[in-house]
Amino acid sequence: MKYGILSGVAATALIATSAFGEEVRVYNWSDYIDESLLQKFEDETGIDLIYDVFDSNEVLETKMLAGGSGYDVVVPSGTFLQRQISAGAFQKLDKSKLPNIANMWDTINTRVAKYDPGNEYAINYMWGTTGLGVNINKVKEVLGEDAPVDSLSLVLDPANMEKLAECGVQFLDAPAEMIPAALKYIGENPDAQDVETIEKAEPVLTAIAPFIQKYHSSEYINALANGEICVAFGWSGDILQARDRAAEADNGVEIEFYAPKEGALMWFDNMAIPVDAPNPDGAHKFLNFIMDAQNMAAASNYVYYANGNKASQEFLVEDVIGDSAIYPDAATLENLYTTSPYAPKVQRVVTRLWTKVKSGT
To answer: Can you tell me the distance from the alpha carbon of 210 to that of 357, in angstroms, rounded to the nearest whole number?
Structure first.
């Protein structure tokens, strides 16, 4: 069975075949796990695993805040986790059922505690940065040898974007990431919570919108790897996956990831159990399985993201643990910023602003 794409008819069929057995339903990001781990979980526990995927926090949040999602484990990012905890969408972890929680990394736990005080509701799965995926040869061909590949100006300066449009640019469809980047570029606080400051991002993003081929939170991986686009503003691990797919295909496409020198967003994806999870005991078994050091290492070795599990680091391949784009050095870490969730009234402004930017109206 191929995991990671179960939905609709396939998921219904699986439910029917396992009606008399225990099952756990997991909702995770697309392209975000070594699928052999899913089979391993079933083999070790005897529990049927139903695994569906999404590609934006907004899709997940709609399900969570509506209630009755039907999932046992979901994977929101930090600011969304915080808002959903406040809305009562999750249940506290029973840490007595999670012996592998001892493997977690204090440094990351401390940062995630900004969103989940006391780390009571979630465990960190992966973390990373948002930055620039660059087809080096194409970009330098268009902008010259001194192209600002490590700067937000690469994609937020309209003069650069007008030229880069020739070879294709895609942005994340993620206002909670793109608006802070625009604010950082113009010297404002990327974690601004007031409408007046947030609205300063609009002219920055509107000015470059005509030159953006697509706003999407997963399609840029293959587009970058295949040479269909030359720049993506995306998540670190996705861009490194694109780099490796291009290398495997030996197609002449050379991809590099850059955390912008002005500062990059540090994000955290976390596993949590919905308050109305059908099988919370099974959910704890899945979380404990994921927190096994070798299992977590296998996930990171596959997706090329850093994880919040300190014990896993001895099992990480050198291409992961030794890559400063995945596990940044101290200086880069110091330059990363985090953001807080917007209040409901501010969120409505953010949503309208982003819709306006994308639609051009």
So the answer is: 10
